[in-house]
Design brief:
single chain; alpha+beta; 4-stranded antiparallel β-sheet; 3-stranded antiparallel β-sheet
Length: 220
Amino acid sequence: MRKQLDEFVTSTTIHGINKAGNASWRRRRFVWLLLTLLMTCALIAFIVEAITSFLQYRTVTRISAENKQNLEFPAVTICNMNMVKKTIPQCNGTVFANLDKVFLNFGETLVIEDRLTPGLGFVNGLLPSGEQMLNCLYQYSNTIEEMLPICTWNGALEPCSNLFKTTLTEMGVCFTFNGEANQRQHSSFTGSDSGLRVFVDIRQEDYFYSATIQAGIKNN
C-alpha cells in the first residue's frame, strides 16, 4: 500500500501532489502540500457557491402578457422625392424666371456657375432671400389633396387633409400622420384594413429636380 501511494504521488499529473512527492526537501514538500490544500478548499467553496446560486432560480428575464383594447399608432411621415413642381420658375415674378436652367437642390447645395449672368440662373444676378425661397417652396410643392387623394383610418374613409399635417423636413414639404404628441391616434383592431391606408400619387409629370434624381416617395 505504501509503495502504491508513493508511485501515485510521484507519477500523478495533479501538479501540487506531484511536486510535493518529488520534492527533495521536506520544507518544499510541506509548501506544495499546503498550496494544494488551499486550492482544493477554494475549488470546493466556488463549487458550493455556484450550486447554491443555481438552486435559488433567480429570474433574469420576466415576460408577461397584457391584454389592451387599443394601442397607440406610430407617427408616419410621407415625402415626395421631388421637392418642388416644375412650375416653380414662375414663383415671385422675374427672380425665378430662368431657374429651370440651374440645378436647384434644396436638400444639399445650390450648384451654379461662378459667374452668374442674366439668362443663366437668376435674372440680373439677384439671389432670392431665404424667406422668398421658403415661400416658393410651400407654394410650389405638392399639397395633401394632390399627393394623397384617398385615405382610410380604422377601416373608414377619411379626408387625407384631416389625417395628415404639412411639415417641413430636409426633404422639403412632407405630410405627417399622428405627429402631434397631445393628439395621438389609437387603433383598436388588427390587420392592414384597420390601420392607416393611403393611396399616393407621386405626380411625376410635375417633377423638377430632386435630391437623388429619382421618382417615388420616402416614408418614416
